[in-house]
Specification:
The protein is α+β, with helices and mostly antiparallel strands. Helix content is about 45%, strand content about 15%. A hairpin with a 5-residue loop joins strand 2 and strand 3. The chain is globular. The relative contact order is 0.12.
């Protein structure tokens, strides 16, 4: 079975996600809730066909503007420095004034993934 790609959009009450290729739609107040709901919706959609899904069968896409609105903890200037991109250019992408090329999008995504890996490897000291 091919992967299901869900397009994520910000709504007034949280988030929605839909697949352009399958009749899978869902909502959630938060991104983690949306991911869980999307998995349940996809399972229900494929239940009659007796197809078993795993979480890795579903991927999510969100545009830069909505990504930075939700993940406010990630600073666009910091990301620009991290990936060697002009901060003004990245800001224009984030604000929707310009659309990044596929190469630039991959560069930005690689930087986001690097930051995520760095953060997941950090433990905080607990002082007595």
């Amino acid at each position: 079975m091919a992967k299901i790609t869900m397009i994520v959009e910000k709504t007034d009450t949280g988030f929605s996600a839909y697949s352009n290729n399958d009749s899978v739609y869902t909502t959630g107040k938060t991104i983690p809730e949306l991911i869980n709901n999307a998995f349940e919706a996809a399972e229900l959609f494929y239940e009659e066909e007796d197809i078993q899904l795993t979480h890795s069968d579903i991927s999510f896409e969100i545009d830069l503007q909505q990504f930075f609105k939700y993940y406010k903890v990630l600073n666009a200037n910091f990301l620009a420095k991290k990936i060697g991109m002009n901060a003004t250019l990245l800001s224009q992408y984030v604000q929707g004034h310009k659309k990044p090329s596929e190469k630039q999008t991959n560069r930005i995504l690689t930087g986001i993934h690097q930051i995520g890996q760095e953060l997941s490897g950090i433990n905080l000291l607990q002082k007595a």
